[in-house]
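Below is the record:
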Amino acid sequence: MKIALGQYEIYKDFLEEIDPKRQLYLAVSSETDNEVFQQKTNQFIIKRHQLPFIIVNIETEDFDEEHDQYLWLQVGWLHSHRVHSITLHLRLHDGKIWIEQDWTENGIATELLKAGVSNDEIVLGFRHPKKRPLTEFAVA
């Protein structure tokens, strides 16, 4: 709980500086909610720090190898509201890795480069086609 609270406070401070209107939530799995967040001492911390959290199914993945589509989803509930968002969407097309969506902390392109994938094999599909030539990656 101490690590989660510390990370939340750091992200919250940063987000308040760059986008003060955006709400930050602490995303936890239902197992973490049951095992950690429901403990009385942790309930006190949650209340005292006014921690808004979302119960998500963090490990939800959808790999469609037949069509070369790969998704990492955040699925769960925020109180009575359904949460469903794409954390990462990759697809393989014309011998290149297209990054269609990337909300990972360090960026999947960084991880691909570290793994030995060259810049010309990666397309930032979430960038407008006219802006892709301004990046260090393939345009299509």
Summary: The beta strands are 26-29, 53-56, 60-64, 69-78, 81-93, 96-102, 122-123. The CA atoms of residues 75 and 81 lie 11 Å apart. Residues 2-18 form the longest helix (17 residues).
